[in-house]
Amino acid sequence: MFSVRVKNVTKHSKDTVTVTFNVSFRSFPGQFVMLNLPGHEEIPLSLSSPDSVTVRAVGETTEALVNIQPGELLGIKGPMGRPFSIPNGTALLIAGGIGIAPLIYLHDYIIGRGGEVKILYGVRTSEELINHRRFENIKISTDNGSAGFHGNVIDLLKVEDRPDRYSRIYCCGPEIMLRKLYDFFKENKLLRKVEFALERYMKCGMGVCGSCALENGLMVCSEGPVFNGVELEW
Amino acid sequence: MFSVRVKNVTKHSKDTVTVTFNVSFRSFPGQFVMLNLPGHEEIPLSLSSPDSVTVRAVGETTEALVNIQPGELLGIKGPMGRPFSIPNGTALLIAGGIGIAPLIYLHDYIIGRGGEVKILYGVRTSEELINHRRFENIKISTDNGSAGFHGNVIDLLKVEDRPDRYSRIYCCGPEIMLRKLYDFFKENKLLRKVEFALERYMKCGMGVCGSCALENGLMVCSEGPVFNGVELEW
Amino acid sequence: MLDIELCGIKMRNPLMLASGILGSYSSSLNRIAENAGAVVTKSVGAEEREGYRNPVLINYGDGFVNAVGLSSPGAEVFSKELKNFRGGCPLIVSLFGSSPEEIAHLTSFFPFADAFEINLSCPHAEKVGLAVGSDPTLVREIVTYVKKSTSKPVFAKLSPNVNDIVEIGKAAEKGGADGVVAINTIRGMSIDILSRKPVLSNISGGVSGEAIKPIALKCVWDLYENLKIPVIGVGGITTWKDVVEFMLAGAEAVQIGSAHFYSYKLFFSLKESLLAYVRKNEPLKEIIGMAHG
Amino acid sequence: MLDIELCGIKMRNPLMLASGILGSYSSSLNRIAENAGAVVTKSVGAEEREGYRNPVLINYGDGFVNAVGLSSPGAEVFSKELKNFRGGCPLIVSLFGSSPEEIAHLTSFFPFADAFEINLSCPHAEKVGLAVGSDPTLVREIVTYVKKSTSKPVFAKLSPNVNDIVEIGKAAEKGGADGVVAINTIRGMSIDILSRKPVLSNISGGVSGEAIKPIALKCVWDLYENLKIPVIGVGGITTWKDVVEFMLAGAEAVQIGSAHFYSYKLFFSLKESLLAYVRKNEPLKEIIGMAHG
Ligand SMILES: Cc1cc2nc3c(=O)[nH]c(=O)nc-3n(C[C@H](O)[C@H](O)[C@H](O)COP(=O)(O)OP(=O)(O)OC[C@H]3O[C@@H](n4cnc5c(N)ncnc54)[C@H](O)[C@@H]3O)c2cc1C
Ligand SMILES: Cc1cc2nc3c(=O)[nH]c(=O)nc-3n(C[C@H](O)[C@H](O)[C@H](O)COP(=O)(O)OP(=O)(O)OC[C@H]3O[C@@H](n4cnc5c(N)ncnc54)[C@H](O)[C@@H]3O)c2cc1C
Ligand SMILES: Cc1cc2nc3c(=O)[nH]c(=O)nc-3n(C[C@H](O)[C@H](O)[C@H](O)COP(=O)(O)O)c2cc1C
Ligand SMILES: Cc1cc2nc3c(=O)[nH]c(=O)nc-3n(C[C@H](O)[C@H](O)[C@H](O)COP(=O)(O)O)c2cc1C
Ligand code: FES
Ligand code: FES
Q: How confident is the model over D80-110, as pLDDT tens digits?
C-alpha cells in the first residue's frame, strides 16, 4: 500500500465525481485500485484514467469519497487486475450507469492510439450522465426518455447498430444488464468478441480470501475484473 | 546454505588434503566459504581454487574433513569475503604453513591471466610442504633446514629479494608471522603494497555477530579476510 | 507415490488448502480440489458474522498480515453453499465458536464433510479465537465435545501465540483429537507512516506467509516429538522444498494458504515437483519425521 | 532534531544497537558508537559460557534464524574488554542469568555502564533464557533485585514467545523497570532437505529480521497501551520508515540488529534519512505513539 494525495475533484452530478490524484499510475484500462480513505472501508474502484477514479455514492465509503477535498490523503493498492484487451479495429463500448468509469479510460486509450470507438451509454435519467459530451461517437439511452433514446441500452444496441461489425465489444454496468448482454451476444454467437468488466464484493483484493469468486471459481480481483464472454458460465 | 558433494580428495601429507567439490564457484582468490560437514562444526576455509579447499587437521572438524570420502555431502555458505586485489605487475606471494591455501588460487589466477608471480613459502619441516613443485618460481624455507632455506620465511625474504620490486605483495599464514611481516613492511614503507589474509574465530560468517572483529573494529568475515596493510593497526 | 492416509482419509497427495483461503464458496473449492489432496473450508460459526471492515489484508513483502476476521455466513447457509462441492477431494469443514457446546453443535450441519477442523486460534477475533485456544482445559473440553458429536476425524488447529504450543497440543490429544494442525497466524500489525494510522481496519491481525515458515516448522517439530497423533504442518509453505522440509520435521500432511497469492496452479505445480522428488527418493510418507534424532 | 532522552540518558538519536549484534568487543562497539544513539552489548553472564557450535546463523531470505546462544566470556573478562569502549555514545550492558541474585550481582562489574538491559528472553538458551522470561513473578523479582543493585536505569527485554507479552511487561514495570525492550527473537528452525537434518547445530534458534517486523510492532503497540514506562522497539527494523513506524506505535527509541547484515553504515544512513524526515515534519520525539486512538 502507498499513499497519494487528491489533486482535484470534479463534480459530475449530485452523487458522482471524478477524483484525480497527484500521481499517475502505470496501468491499463480495465484495471482497478483498492482505495482506502482513512477511517473508512477500503473499496475497489476502476481507474477512469491513469490518475483518476470516477465514483458514485451508493453507501458509506463512496459517500465520503464524493465529498473528499483536494489535498486529502488516500491509501492505494494496485493498480491491479486483468485489463481490457486492445482491439485491432473499431471498438464498441457499452456502459450502464457508473459502468462508464473504466470505459472512459478505455475510450481515451484507444483514441490516443489512433483507433476508432463507438459508445452506447445507458442511464436511468439524464441527470446521471457523466461528461458525455467529451465523447465524439456516442449514443445515449435513458430509461425515462429524458435524453437520447428512450429505453435501455440493450434496446438501443438492437436498433442502433450491428454488433458484428466491431472488432471487439466491451461492456460494463450493473450485473443485470451484463447478463442480458451476455444472453444477447451468446444468441448472436458473438461472445468471443465481448469483454465484460465485472464487480464482486471484495475483501482482500489480492486473490487470497476468495470472497470475489465467480460461479465458475474464477476470482474477480486477481483473474478479472475483465473476462471474455466465453470464460463466463452464465 | 546449499549442499555440494565431494568429488575428490587429494592427500598432501598426513594431516593436509585438498577437497574438490562437484561444483565450481564464481569466486575470486582470497574469498572463503563457511563449510559444514554434517554433524560437525561449520568452519571457514579459503578456496584454494574455484572448486576446492585445502585444509589441515588442527582440531575436531578439520580432522573429520581430512578423512572425508568422495560422494559425501557438505553444506556451503558463500563464497564470501573481500578477495585479493589483482596486481598490475609481478606479484610476490608469501605463505606460512597452511596459509598457502588461498595463495594457490591467487597464483593460478594470476598465471592464468598472463601475469608473473614469485612465491616464498615457509614451513616448519619439509613434510608440511603442499605440492610445491607445481609452482615455477618458488623459494622454500624450513625452520629445521630439511628443505630449501634454513630459517623462517621472513629471513628468506630479507636475503632472497628486494620487496620494493614487486607491484603487490600478498601474505597469508600464522598471525605471528603476519605481524612480523607487517613490521618489516612498515619499516620499509611498503605497507600500501601489501595485502594480508587474516583469520579470526568466526561464528556467523555473515557480518552480524561480531565475533571476528579486529582491533580496529573491522569484521574479518564481511570486510576481510583480505586487508591492505594500511587498514590494519598493528 | 504421493498418496497418504490421514486418520483414515485417503488423499492423493499431502497438500491441503488452508482454511480461510479461497474457501468461502464451492466454486473456488471445486477448482482447488482438482489438484489438492484435501481442502479445508473457511471457518464457520453458528450465526452470521460480519468479519472486519476493509482493509483486511496487507502484503508486507515477507508475508501477509490479515484481519479478515471470522466472517461467516452461519452454519446453515454455509452448508447449503457447500452442497455444490463436487467432491474432487476430501472436504474438511473448519469450525469456530466460543463454547464446547456451540462448536460441537455445528458438525450436524455438515454430514457430507470428510473431517472437521476446530479453529482454536484466530489471533484477531475476540472471544472465539485465541482466547479459546490458549487455555488447555477449555481446548480439551471442546475437542471432547466435538468428538462426541461426530464419527468423522477431528483436527485441532493450534496457535503459535502461546507460551507452549505442546501443552495445548497435548490437551487436544487428551480430548481425543485425531490430529493437530499447526500453525495459525501470528499476531501482528502494520502502520502507514503517511496517514499515521494502523493499516488494517481492525488495527491488528495475523501474520502468515513465507516470513513465518521457520516459526511454524519449529512448532511442527516440537509437536511431533511430544504427541502421538498426526501433525499437519502449515505456515509459509510456498515451494515443494518447503513441503519436504515440513514432512522431514514430522508433518504427515501440509496446508497451504498465503502462497495462493502467487498462483492458483500451486497445487498442480507442487504435485508435479514432488513427483519428481519421489522418483529420485523414497515415497513421501517414508520421510515423515526423518530429520529427528 | 533527533535527540531524545530515555530515562535520563541523553541520546543524539533514538537508534540503538541491539544486543548480540557486533557487541562482543569494544572495537566494534566503538565503531557503531560513532553514529548510534546508544549501543547495547552482547549479553553477559556470571561465568564463561560457550554458546552453541557452528552453524549458528541462517539467512532464510525473509530474516535470520540464530542460535548463537548466550555465549559469554563471563562478567569479569567482559568488563575488562569494555574498558576499551571510547564512549562515543551511551553504553548499555545486557545481562543474563538464572536467578535474581545472580543477575543483580552482575551490575557491580560494570560501574561505567550508562544503563543495564536484562535479557529475559533468549528463546534457545536453556534455563537462562525464555524459561526465566515467561514467568511474571520471577520477572518482577529479577527486576526488583537488579534495580536494588544499581542506580542506573534498568530495561527489561521481553520475549514474544508468551501468551501475553503485556502481562510480562507489567510484571517488569511493577518490579521497577525503567523501560521495556520488545522483542527478542521468535522460536524457529530450518531443515536442510538434502542432508535431512536441522541446519543449526542447536536444532532450533530465534527468528529475527524483516520477517518479524509486524509481530514486533504489535507487541510495542500493546505495551504502549498498557504500560506507563517507556517502550523500546526492536525486531526487523531496517529502513528509516520502519523507525518511524515503531515510534508511531509508541516506541521512544528503537534497537536494530539483523539489518547490520546489509551495511555497517546503517546508523549513519538512518540518521541522515530521519533528519530529512524531521525537516519536513515535527521532531521525532513528538511522533511517539501518534498512531494510537
Ligand atoms: C472491480 C471493481 C471496480 C469498481 N469500479 C467502480 C467505479 O469505477 N466507480 C464506482 O463508483 N464504483 C465502482 N465499483 C463499486 C464500488 O466498489 C462499490 O460501490 C463500493 O465498494 C461501495 O462501497 P460503500 O461503502 O460506499 O457502500 P456500502 O454501504 O458498503 O454498500 C453499497 C453497495 O456496494 C456493494 N459493495 C460494498 N463493498 C464492496 C466491495 N468491497 N466490493 C464490491 N462491492 C461492494 C455492496 O454490496 C452494496 O451493494 C467497483 C467494484 C469492483 C469490484
Ligand atoms: C577466513 C579464514 C580462512 C581459513 N582458511 C583455511 C584454509 O584454507 N585451510 C585451513 O586448513 N584452515 C583455514 N582456516 C582455519 C580454519 O577455519 C580452522 O583451522 C578451523 O576452524 C578449526 O576447526 P576445528 O574444529 O578443526 O578445530 P578446533 O578444535 O575447533 O580448534 C582448533 C583451532 O582452530 C581455531 N578455530 C576453531 N574454530 C574456528 C573458526 N570458526 N574460525 C577460525 N578459527 C577457528 C581455534 O581457535 C583453535 O585455535 C581459515 C580460517 C579463516 C577465518
Ligand atoms: C486471509 C486469511 C484468512 C484466514 N482465515 C482463516 C480461517 O478462517 N480459519 C483458520 O483456521 N485459519 C485462517 N487463516 C490462517 C491460515 O489457514 C493459515 O493457518 C495461515 O495463513 C498460515 O499458513 P500460510 O502461511 O500458508 O498462509 C487465514 C489466513 C489468511 C491469510
Ligand atoms: C546473531 C544474534 C545474536 C543475538 N544475541 C542476543 C543477545 O545476546 N542478547 C539479547 O538480548 N538479544 C540477542 N539477540 C536478539 C536481538 O537483540 C534482537 O532482539 C532481535 O534480533 C530482533 O531484532 P532485529 O530483527 O533487528 O535483529 C540476538 C540476535 C541475533 C540475530
Ligand atoms: S477479494 Fe479476496 S480473493 Fe478476490
Ligand atoms: S563471524 Fe559473525 S560477524 Fe564475522
A: 999 999 999 999 999 999 889 999 999 999 9
What is the Rg, in whole angstroms, of the alpha carbon atoms belonging to chain D?
18
Structural domain span for residue D250: 4-51+68-189+208-292
A46 close to A107: Cβ distance less than 8 angstroms: no
- Identify residue D274 by its one-letter amino acid code: L
Task: Report the alpha-carbon distance of residue D122 to residue D159 in Å, rounded.
Answer: 7
Q: Spell out the CATH class of A91-197.
A: alpha beta
Count of structural domains, chain D: 1
Q: Which residues in C lie closer than 8 A to residue A204 (C-beta atoms)?
A: 56-57, 66, 68
Contacts of C154 (CB under 8 A, 6+ apart): C115, C116, C117, C118, C143, C146, C147, C176, C177, C178
Please give the mean pLDDT across all residues of chain D: 94
DSSP β-bridge partners for residue A11: A17
Q: What is the residue whose three cell numbers read 465485472?
A: A198
Q: What's D132's domain CATH number?
A: 3.20.20.70
pLDDT in tens, A91-111: 999 999 999 999 999 999 999
Cβ partners under 8 Å of residue D231, min gap 6: D179, D180, D181, D182, D220, D223, D224, D250, D251, D252
**Residue D164 included in any domain:** yes
Residue D214 to residue D220: CA distance in whole angstroms: 10
Q: Is D212 on the interface with C (CB under 8 A)?
A: yes
Nearest-angstrom CA–CA distance, C240 and C274: 6
Tally the residues of chain D: 293
Distance, C-alpha B84 to centroid of its chain: 10
Which residue CA neighbors atom 17 of ligand 2 most closely? B44
Alpha carbon separation from A233 to A187, A207, A214, A228 (Å, rounded): 14, 20, 9, 11
Nearest by Cα to D53 from D74, D73, D69, D72: D69
Among candidates C162, C241, C244 on the partner chain, residue whose Cβ is nearest the Cβ of D163: C162
Contact C218 D211 (CB under 8 A): no
Helix ranges (DSSP H) in chain D: 26-33, 75-82, 100-106, 130-133, 136-149, 165-175, 213-226, 240-249, 266-280
Ligand nearest to the CA of A226: 1
Residue C194 belongs to a domain: no
* A vs B contact (3+ beta-carbon pairs below 8 A): no
Neighbour count for residue B63 (Cβ, 10 Å): 14
Architecture label for domain B2-80: Beta Barrel (2.40)
pTM: 0.92
Decide if D63 is inside a domain.
no
Chain segment C176-198, per-residue pLDDT in tens: 999 999 999 999 999 999 889 99
| Ligand 6 atom at minimal distance to the Cα of residue B212 | 4
